[in-house]
Amino acid sequence: MSHAEYRAALDAAVKEYERAVEARTALDDRIAQLRQTIATLTKLCGFTPTVPLGLTDACRLVLRNAGKPMSAVDVRERLTTIGFDHEKYANGLAAIHTVLKRLEESGEAALAEDDEATRQAYQFIGSGLVASRIGPPPAAGKGRPRSRGRRGHAK
Questions:
Q1: Which of 12, 98, 127, 131 has the maximum number of C-beta atoms within 10 A of its C-beta?
Q2: Residues 67 and 116 in one domain
Q3: Integer Cα distance of 97 and 141 in angstroms
């Protein structure tokens, strides 16, 4: 192949790439619109937009059924889709990050090894039955902080 042919192939690849990115952006926008429409219509139909689970159990359910590694953003989107009300949290994404880290520490979830994204992605590996109690014991100094009394002094 000559230099001109390589250049033509490069130009064609760049143009196709740009079209694909535009198509993906349009698709992402449409998915966001549909997600909002579903949430609004769910409320207008009188359905309760909540899942009768706590955040940890809901995240565990999402990871277990995903079948692939998921980032905290992916988990939040799936929670919204299944009707979990995360508006009660001041920062829902931070709460989800915390839950995913704790699931990892308990041995129920693991960071994905071959994730192509720059975000951390987790995958379910445990049974999830009584996960917060069956994980490995915390390392020395990494357990729960001691409870504090009303004035902030250790009990």
A1: 131
A2: yes
A3: 21
